[in-house]
Amino acid sequence: MPSPGESQAGSGVGWIILSVIVFISMFGGVIGYKVWQEREVMLAETEQSHAREAAFLAERATARLSEVRSTLNFATTTISSAAPDAFEANARAQLAFLVESDIITDSALLLPGGETLSINAFDPRMRMAADTALASDTGLSATPAANGGSPYIALAQPVVLTDGRVGALVVSLDANSALPDWGDGRIAMLTNRDGLVLAMRPEPTRGIFTESVATRFALLNDQAALLQNQGGAISGLSIGNQDATLSASPISGTDLTVYLVSAARIDASAWRRTQILYGLLFIAPVIFAIGLGAALSMQMRNLKAARVALGDSERRFRLAIEGARCGVWDWDRKSDTVYVTDSLARILGRDAASVISGQEFLALFARHDRERMRASIRGSSNSGDIDVELQAASLPIWVHMRGRPWGDSTTSGMSDRIVGVA
């Protein structure tokens, strides 16, 4: 069965190990939280950068639409000011001029009574698009793909003819030309007010998806409304097996919105430096804590070994003293108390080891020998030891008392402690 010293030492080592584990767990939690915060900051910076790219695309699309509107204004003015006998030739010339733009795919002049002038074969969708565009505040019509068809975007502007009647000049647009094709995995999209896709770069091989952007990317209603109306960016979306960031920016003066989607792009070098920094901040204290715990454990083991050795030494000393029919006494003169071991207590007729007062200790000896004991104690400061034979008070035995002063001397020149055997 382990001794109390061994149990305390073992318990101390267990507490040290538990303390190190708790410290590592708590410190690791703090470091993990800081790393998470750093990643959130980087994601926020990525979202801001993504939103700026979407805003750039919106500005680019706005510039292209402004260019088309300027060209359309010029054409309507030219047509309105043409002489009656040169009206048709002048109108066809302006229609041909309009389609020279890389963003305009077709143009037509819609005349009252259902007549039309166009360069190519007239597309019936142009009349419907013109009606919608002229009825809107933006002069723009954007119809998403339906029933296997393709999206259709048109700009229309009223034209005052030479005879005073009013027609409409309408152009269909190639929205893809307003979007860049970076070729680096980023996807640019142009949507109408309902979030339905009108154009996409790079162009998908299977055609443009027909559901809204909100449905396609599983956006919440408030997220979809925020992106469509105000712009911004949202990260943490899942596309395939990778995280993605979706940003948007409305095109001013229209009901259109530009979307940009790409894989989440965190600055890899900055993220690696952050991981290394916090890794070192975690490892260094952990190594120190483990080393300190190991050192304390070693000290506890050494203390345990010292306690065991001391216990063995005390047991050997006790056995030796008992075997020699001797006992030990220790008189503390400061407190005037005497410690008497088991063997000496039994020799003098007491039951067990105890701490008694000086008077009680002297009372264990015959009355005529007590003064001799006091005189020996007083003289020990000069002689350096005590050597006196005394008769026990209650037993017919003589006890040979030997001892030496130990410790600092008092003001009277006597030692404050005397230790001896009997």
Write the layout of secondary structure elements.
Layout: H1 4-80, H2 87-98, E1 104-110, E2 116-118, H3 125-135, E3 140-143, E4 152-160, E5 166-173, E6 187-191, E7 197-201, H4 213-216, H5 221-229, E8 232-239, E9 242-250, E10 257-263, H6 268-323, E11 328-332, E12 337-340, H7 342-347, E13 354-357, H8 358-362, H9 367-383, E14 386-391, E15 398-405, E16 417-421
Antiparallel strand pairs: 1-2, 1-5, 3-4, 4-5, 6-7, 6-10, 8-9, 9-10, 11-12, 11-16, 12-13, 14-15, 15-16
Helix pairs in contact: 1-2, 1-6
For the terminal residues, how far apart are their CA atoms?
33 Å
pLDDT averaged residue by residue: 82
Going across the biggest sheet, name each strand in turn: 13-12-11-16-15-14
Look at the helices and sheets and give the structural class: alpha+beta
> Strand content of the residues, in percent?
15-25%
Give the beta-strand count. Answer: 16
- Helix share of residues? 40-55%
User: How is the biggest beta sheet arranged?
Assistant: 6 strands, antiparallel
- What is the overall silhouette? rod-shaped
Helical run tally: 9
Q: Radius of gyration over alpha carbons?
A: 52 Å
SSE pattern, N- to C-terminal = HHEEHEEEEEHHEEEHEEHEHHEEE
* Poorly predicted residue ranges: none
